[in-house]
């Protein structure tokens, strides 16, 4: 039997046992995300469409699935959705700047030997694809952080209906500070687990520190981790501001009515 | 009066911390822009480029790509030939999978042809990327400190400590023969967990509960993955696509899987224990049943987004390779199974770890709460 099938079945079983209906929905959302991921790649093989546009659309769809499908459409998820999109756009601007200067796109010289059967001249802009890869590896963490801040902010608002924007914002920032460490940690270990083979390989071939740091593969991995971490930190103030506005403004609108 | 004095003291401590960070920032930037003499390989800075010729590539039917040849004059920055100009040629394509256009100001590692000619010639080996990595690292550090203040700084420190620890553990693994990588990683994982959680959350029962839950969650999920691998005889895993293999590949895969899910499992464990302890501290009389219900509700909320984090972090890196396969007209099914099987296995195993840690974290936190209750 295929190992992926068995692992997926175990995950589904556990999610249903512990999470009930919501667990099943989370598992289904994973499937949908995988579908979006595949469609994104297929679009990217069409050289006429700009990869940035494909990436931003994919991010919007993924955020939509993970916020509105797993949870429900309410002021919290709307604020989280808007914050995620704003953060992704800001982060993308930064990443574009970085990838166009660092030349970390495509494949490194360590990988090129095994790719000799392929033609590398395929008309796709690998610099743009590189920026998209960084954004897509962070999207899960960005959505998670947005939700983890806006959700308790709503609870706070429900318990203290007279709270003002500034107090609500400070509350959001404080929650953000508490989760910042664990969120960056999650990403850090996820990436390092993936790069373990590379690290051992560098050490086995006794690369010097300078060679490792300047090599395309390692610097690309480092830049991915650092950009992902920056995104997770960036979304904290953005979500706090937007959620505070959303909640307080709806209250004031209701008052006028 | 006293509190005013305290505030002043704290303010000045903060200011001095910012000054120290600023000093580090400035020195490191100056250093990385002038560190040529620390490199043994010759470095040349591009001072002039001319486009020599343009041709169209059609290696694959119906896909157009432009090929360019560019002549470069660069100035050598280190070694014996320092200050001399060198002539280089660079071929690049508009897609840039393995090449790129160079512009004035780029710094390149080159090798110099050792024939005595009137002008030096050489070949381009690599790009000097250290200053960009440093700048991005500073953007990361400053954003974290700006948003998280003290916690932000602690997170940066904890990441740095973990990175050093990992590198040190790998050194031990490589220098000791007959030691299993999975064993080295298991010991490192215990250290990572204890250090990260203590550093970010301090010495208290909340942290202890999270540490135990993390370790149990990680190792139980490892056990399950091992068992599934054994039962299915790893049918469906395409190890041949694993890159950078200099050691037994299966061990490397399992060790990577173990470390990869650790951060997410830690996150779940600390979320569970913090919420349970928070509920208990708010209401010391709260029943175990109420704690269980609330804990499970919180767990349900986080399991979807946490598995998503791992999912996207793992599979996104495969995009360039999948595109390369597809554009070279490989079949879709073959392409996906070649490039995604290991990443998907990792993501699914990590997901199992995350979901399992929810009840584990819940019951261990309740155990600690009970102990605290009987004590007081």
From TrEMBL, chain A:
Listed transmembrane segments: 28-45, 52-69, 81-99, 120-143, 186-202, 223-248
Membrane in keyword set: yes
Assigned keywords, A-Z: Membrane, Transmembrane, Transmembrane helix
Pfam families: YibE_F
Top-level taxon in the UniProt lineage: Bacteria
InterPro entries: UCP031503_TM, YibE_F
Statement: the UniProt record of this protein carries the keyword ATP-binding: no
Record's protein name: YibE/F family protein
Organism of derivation: Peribacillus psychrosaccharolyticus (Bacillus psychrosaccharolyticus)
